Amino acid sequence: xxxxxxxxxxxxxxxxxxxxxxxxxxxxxxxxxxxxxxxxxxxxxxxxxxxxxxxxxxxxxxxxxxxxxxxxxxxxxxxxxxxxxxxxxxxxxxxxxxxxxxxxxxxxxxxxxxxxxxxxxxxxxxxxxxxxxxxxxxxxxxxxxxxxxxxxxxxxxxxxxxxxxxxxxxxxxxxxxxxxxxxxxxxxxxxxxxxxxxxxxxxxxxxxxxxxxxxxxxxxxxxxxxxxxxxxxxxxxxxxxxxxxxxxxxxxxxxxxxxxxxxxxxxxxxxxxxxxxxxxxxxxxxxxxxxxxxxxxxxxxxxxxxxxxx
Length: 310
Prior knowledge:
Pfam families: Fer4_16, QueG_DUF1730. The chain has 310 residues and is an alpha+beta fold. It has twelve helices and ten strands.
């Protein structure tokens, strides 16, 4: 059995270099410990029912705030960012889907990269125990990425990075070795309120607080029931997710196209017009979104969202 390297700086540098080779745009590390500042915020958010019908947000409260309860013996949280900003966007005359769903489902793409990173750690560092997470367990991704110095949490509650923007996925490896920890960066939102002013459903109820139950992404993806009539006419043609608060963020003028072929859209997607969307069949849905996250809403859910715009 290969014993883990003891030089924390060297070990951390090795991991970060490999993360970069795998295509991640950033890698930061923080100590696995209780998220003291996040605890009261999360409790208040849940108490105000801002999770809507996302009941899973209420589960595993302790594990959500303390990775050592989620992964036994964990000492470090390795946070990683993967760019998904597309080179080309949808037709101007189209019903809109969030850019993150243009290509293949990010869960599979990132999980594969994380497996490679774990393999690299085992082969080059030693028998390191840990678990990989991609938006699929009670982990506060943005809080850990911010703690690891990868950006700050903006007024739209997204992680934002200087000179990069916010169009990226966040993933973690929680491991049982001590590493060299990074420091958080400062907030650079300043007096800007672009995201708050632009939100079609006024879901950003206070700076840094998003009422999830008012967000277009919630209505078009998470909500399984009928969409409430009071938000009719406010969706600005979004039928799966919403990018408004990111599109208007000044830091996203620095967004550069990703270089992950699996995130490239199906050839038919970008040319689809509003009429094409309104007349979409289940066969076209299956073909265009065969491996996309859009499948999560199912054809019936997408049809519901399209019909709601009429």
